[in-house]
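INFO batch 0412 | record 1 of 1 | parsing
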Amino acid sequence: MTAQQGSLAPLTTPTTPTTPKTPAASSGTLYAALGVLSFSFSFPGTVWALDGFGPWSAIGVRGVLAAVIAVAALLITRAPLPTRGDWPALAVVAGGCAVGFPLLTTLALQTSSTANSAVVIGALPMATAVFSAVLTRRSPSKVFWAAAGLGAATVLVFTLSQNHGRPTVADLFLFGALLVCAAGYAHGGRLSARMPGWRVIAWGVVLAAPVNLAVALWALPHEPVHLTAKAVLGMAYIAGISQFGGFVVWYKGMGLIGVARASQLQLAQPLLTLVWAVLLLGEQITPAVPLTAAIVLTCIVVTQRARTS
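INFO prediction complete | emitting tokens
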């Protein structure tokens, strides 16, 4: 009997089911983190681009350059066309991430500082989680909604306090950018679970190309262009990385670990942008900026934990 039990022992030893998932989760976290790091330079890059381009020219040119990169990648890899059911979500990605967000943030940064803009956009992970909850039809807990409400109220109080109780046009642009980008993140993240992330943003950028080309053709003759080194570097970054490359790793990470988990990593983006605003742009920030950022990030942490619990 003892011999039989000994021979059966190896068969009863359980195999850890989570072992194969660990590399994917680790690589997904790394990809998403690289996306966050890439996006954290977007506001300073836009400010640099505006050193030599007019706002509308910057919007159109970055979209056209990103589309050239996307088309080249799609042709070189002979990427198949998306299925009919994927086009509506790709249209949201195009409208939110390739047109709406660049347009609204560029217009906002003409009158709003990078630091203040980063705080407002700090609510983006929370908005993304809300859109994801709606898309997946999963009802968040009361804790989620309480923290989400507090975070939104904190951002609102901050923006009003900075402008003597009245929202500025820049604030409205930023809130609009937050909403359209969150929708693009949520839809793109879901698509990336079954389509390579780089294809998601590539097709989104291509769909947005006609709009961006029209804007560029209209704006360039009317806005003077001064190709300074700073302007060229900024344009190269927001076109190649902010508009395309950053989304490649961001959507790949979302596809591997999910929209909600990836959103948690984006909590660091506002703080990183604040650091770049001070180091690269020489901006001065008031104590209200980091304090508001800390409160918003705390609220988002609670929403993410409630969302994924």
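INFO post-check: Residues 229-257 form the longest helix (29 residues).
INFO record closed
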